[in-house]
Amino acid sequence: MTILTPKLKKSELTRSALIEEGIQQLSAHGYHGTGIKQVLDAVKVPKGSFYNYFSSKESYVADIIVEYNHQALVMFDEFVGQSELPALEQLKAIYAYMLNKFSDNSCQKGCLIGSIAAEIGNTFELCQKAMQASVDDWLLRLNTLVSKGQAEGTIRTDIPSNDLAELIWSAWEGSLIKMKMDGDIHSPKKIIFLTLETLLKP
To answer: Which string of b and e fits 110-132 if b means at least 16 CB within 10 Å?
Structure first.
């Protein structure tokens, strides 16, 4: 029996297209450098229609953060779910994959959430909450892998797993800022190597 997937309504397709274009624009130009008009022109949506989908630019960017994070977490979860590697090797593989992706984009597009956080901080409440929830999602997953690595004996146990997870996340996000300044992956490659190969070792 063939199961038919329900077709998305035109409004849902338009909203999805606006969010996908927003991910591209924000990754390249940041919060203040991305104008609603340039997004609407790219998707070919009339200017007056924007508020049929989003109440404001802030709510639009907050929804973009949620979707961007969802897409990244889906890939992360699929990899972890299918991988038979030890936890520490999984972490190495995940970050090696992300480094290659950034390199393919000429190192101009770092982590969207980290870039927006560096630009606007806690200025906009909706965006702040979306970013905080996104970071919590990542820390939860990193904590799970670190805990597994501790149980396997490949990651130090004298520091709580949640603290090590936050160290990994913070070191990575910080190195991506320098990556965008330098235009190459040397800094994040060095930082993630030191973090995983030295700081996490028993």
So the answer is: bbbbbbbbbebeeebebbbebbe
